[in-house]
Specification:
- The chain has 304 residues and is an alpha+beta fold.
- It has 2 domains: 154 residues, Jelly Rolls; 116 residues, Homeodomain-like (Arc Repressor Mutant, subunit A).
Length: 304
């Protein structure tokens, strides 16, 4: 596979700060929201190839670009949307003349697949195209409503979830006769307050380790101080938050090295490392082997 690095041009792109959402009920509800953000891309700006551990949908506010997925290239424009499936290698590129601006939402949960089916998304149908200008404007207007509620009032989960469903209702396909909600699920005991904080933080890290994680933001989302969060992790895992995060990334990288033929650069970015050399140094420091040596020792002789 051809290797690409993430093309970051912060002085040209205009990203809105990505906000990540975490609530006590996220570990149990049927649909979980993780983060949302937006960006005005520079000409030719691209991301990938990389994978995500959850669903990630982009709504195109203006401009044009290409979405590359499953050996297909989709030419997209204002009012369209593209879906990234969990564990699917993708790449997307802004147009050189009319670079796109888009907003994104990361989510998953037991009801996510059913919700997506209602909107016409499947494992092979990963693009939504607004049928007309009016539909496109309605979709983008509701995208703004959702994004504003997500960024400005992250404590009101009901408002956020309501706007999330209203956003997807703009893409609703009436011909899909599938039930939207599944039967309620048993809740597990809450345990001690420290255990709850620990589970919340771990849930957050499991779904965000492929991105830059700020410990201060994690502590704020959980609702404790950074010092107290450190003590919780030492008590429950014997590791600091940073070490726990590093181990999550390395474990994910080991799994990809054993089970896939993805190249080292793609694995590095997909697991949250800033570049391939940094990944290789940390991997060898931890395992005593380079990523390629580890792959071969595991019996995977695919191209690296």
């Amino acid at each position: 596979m051809e290797s690409f690095m993430m093309n970051e041009s912060p002085e040209k792109n205009n990203p809105r700060e990505t906000v990540r959402l975490l609530t006590e009920s996220q570990t149990r509800i049927a649909l979980r929201l993780y983060y949302s953000g937006s960006e005005s891309c520079a000409p030719g700006h691209f991301f990938g190839p990389a994978i995500r551990p959850h669903y990630l949908i982009h709504f195109i506010r203006s401009g044009r670009g290409k979405y590359i997925c499953q050996d297909n290239i989709f030419e997209l424009e204002k009012g369209d949307a593209f879906l990234i499936l969990p564990a699917e290698t993708t790449k997307y590129i802004a147009d050189e003349k009319e670079p796109w601006e888009y907003s994104w939402i990361a989510f998953d949960g037991p009801d996510a697949r059913t919700l997506l089916k209602h909107c016409g998304f499947t494992d092979t149908q990963v693009v939504y195209r607004s049928p007309d200008k009016e539909s496109a404007e309605k979709l983008l207007a509701q995208t703004s409503v959702f994004e504003n509620s997500f960024h400005e009032n992250s404590q009101n989960l009901l408002e956020i979830m309501g706007n999330f469903y209203l956003l997807f209702s703009c893409m609703y396909q009436e011909q899909m006769p599938v039930p939207l909600l599944t039967p309620s699920r048993q809740s597990s005991p809450a345990g001690t307050l420290q255990e709850l904080y620990f589970r919340q933080a771990v849930e957050y890290l499991k779904h965000n380790f492929s991105y830059p994680v700020k410990i201060e933001q994690l502590a704020r989302q959980v609702g404790v101080s950074r010092t107290y969060l450190y003590k919780i992790f030492i008590s429950h895992s014997g590791k600091s938050v940073q070490q726990y995060l590093q181990d999550l990334r390395l474990t994910a990288a080991m799994d990809m090295l054993k089970k896939s033929g993805r190249d080292i650069t793609e694995i590095a970015y997909s697991c949250g490392f800033t570049d391939s050399p940094a990944f290789c140094r940390q991997f060898k420091k931890t395992t005593g082997l380079t990523p390629l040596q580890y792959r071969r020792a595991a019996g995977n002789y695919g191209d690296s």
